């Protein structure tokens, strides 16, 4: 017999991120849900991001006093209530009115950082002002460097703590399930138009009274009147710079005085280059399976990256995290923090700020419970001794890993 999920709208009745996902599926028209959900091409990367967690099991300790439990961590010298934050997701205003502010406010209320995507529908200054809390901002390296410099100056004036440069998107990945909804770029087919009519709750919240939300940070980059999704998508496509190299990161390093983080590293050699470029942190990421298909999961390479650069910069990662226990597996392998993409977007899509807050609350309680069951009351004491690999697929056997590092170091010398 098929098991039945809760079918209502009260986000408090969601017990897992999967429950929020099911609620998001019901509230959003198909084309919006697919924008969030899908991965590139055969979605092998997307699957790998989830499958990797099943290969790592916990080895708990027993008869440990776990009456008081602590999951807070220090990130760049300041406390974060939990070892995770909300990562950048562009165009969140399509899921819920002023989605960026709702996500940022949920993060601030929970005492965790929020990373604003530069393709937001609320201006960065307004997000910082209305949400409070720790706000970081993600940017792409646009061809028009002066625009990027201007954006960085605005971010600095607004009090943005860290700039996160996404480096895995010099070429657009192909999300085929997303594309199938359109007859031409951004022109929905009749089935999807009809589907929008069947979602009046979403339409009243997102479309009324101005229609599709517009991008709010790209004013200087887009030609006048072109901040619509269509205008922006065309211009952004032309603006993403496939000639990007580490030199530009050094240029940005000289320009930006606060924390600088690179998002999109997958492996120890690039992590070492990031150290050399003088950045403060990296986010191991395959963009949630939305760019290169058949890529490794950040979890696959986390141990070798930590071994090479741990202590020299902050090592964060994202991709596939839907449970508190999964976040703890990453922390046990040496990560400083985890970024969430879809998990909090499902919450936002299911119920705005309350939904995003519920997503965070679910993960925080899962982490708290798992620490108790592991016999590890303080997250600072969590290490790989609490884990066992079920199948020796990753990381690579020591000897081969070491040989590769020797080779990489020779390359870098
Ligand atoms: C709807 C959506 C929009 C995204 N937009 C951005 C973006 O604007 N900038 C960026 O660096 N990453 C973006 N990402 C990637 C996320 O920051 C993150 O790398 C990824 O979602 C992590 O995987 P997860 O969704 O499985 O947690 C987006 C992801 C999703 C799902």
From TrEMBL:
Top-rank taxon, per record: Bacteria
Stretches assigned to the FMN hydroxy acid dehydrogenase domain: 9-392
Keywords tagged on the record: Flavoprotein, FMN, Oxidoreductase
Cofactor names: FMN
Pfam family, one: FMN_dh
InterPro entries: Aldolase_TIM, Alpha-hydoxy_acid_DH_FMN, FMN-dep_DH, FMN_HAD, FMN_hydac_DH_AS
Gene3D superfamilies: Aldolase class I
Family: Belongs to the FMN-dependent alpha-hydroxy acid dehydrogenase family.
Protein name: Alpha-hydroxy-acid oxidizing protein
Organism: Paraburkholderia sejongensis
């Amino acid at each position: 017999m098929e098991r039945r999920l809760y079918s209502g709208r009260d986000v408090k009745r969601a017990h897992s991120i999967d429950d929020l996902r099911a609620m998001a599926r019901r509230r959003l028209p198909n084309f919006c849900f697919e924008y969030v959900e899908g991965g590139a091409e055969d979605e092998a990367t997307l699957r790998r991001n989830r499958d990797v967690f099943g290969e790592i099991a916990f080895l708990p300790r027993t008869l440990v006093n776990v009456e008081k439990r602590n999951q807070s961590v220090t990130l760049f010298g300041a406390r974060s209530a939990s070892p995770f934050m909300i990562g950048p997701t562009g165009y969140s205003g399509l899921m819920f009115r002023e989605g960026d502010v709702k996500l940022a406010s949920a993060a601030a209320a929970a005492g965790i950082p929020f990373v604003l995507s530069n393709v937001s529908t609320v201006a960065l200054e307004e997000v910082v002002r209305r949400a409070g809390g720790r706000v970081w901002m993600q940017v792409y390296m646009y061809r028009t460097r002066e625009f990027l410099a201007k954006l960085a100056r605005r971010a600095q004036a607004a009090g943005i703590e860290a700039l996160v440069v996404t480096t895995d998107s010099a070429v657009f990945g192909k999300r085929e399930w997303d594309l199938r909804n359109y007859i031409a770029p951004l022109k929905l087919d009749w089935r999807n138009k009809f589907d929008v009519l069947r979602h009046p709750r979403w339409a009243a919240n997102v479309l009324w009274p101005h229609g599709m939300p517009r991008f709010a940070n790209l004013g200087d980059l887009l030609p006048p009147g072109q901040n619509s999704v269509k205008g922006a998508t065309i211009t952004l496509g032309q603006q993403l710079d496939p000639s990007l190299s580490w030199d530009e990161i050094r240029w940005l390093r000289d320009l930006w005085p606060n924390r600088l983080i690179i998002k999109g590293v997958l492996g120890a050699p690039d992590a070492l280059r990031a150290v050399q470029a003088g950045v403060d942190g990296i986010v191991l990421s395959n963009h949630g399976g939305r760019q290169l298909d058949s890529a490794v999961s950040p979890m696959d390479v986390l141990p070798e990256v930590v071994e090479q650069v741990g202590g020299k910069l902050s090592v964060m990662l994202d991709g596939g995290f839907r449970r508190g226990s999964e976040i703890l597996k990453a922390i046990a392998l040496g990560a400083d923090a985890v970024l969430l993409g879809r998990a909090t977007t499902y919450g936002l899509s299911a119920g705005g700020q309350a939904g995003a807050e519920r997503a965070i609350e679910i993960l925080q309680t899962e982490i708290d419970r798992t620490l108790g069951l592991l016999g590890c009351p303080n997250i600072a004491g969590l290490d790989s001794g609490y884990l066992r690999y079920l199948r020796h697929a990753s990381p690579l056997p020591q000897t081969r890993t070491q040989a590769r590092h020797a080779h990489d170091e020779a390359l870098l010398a």
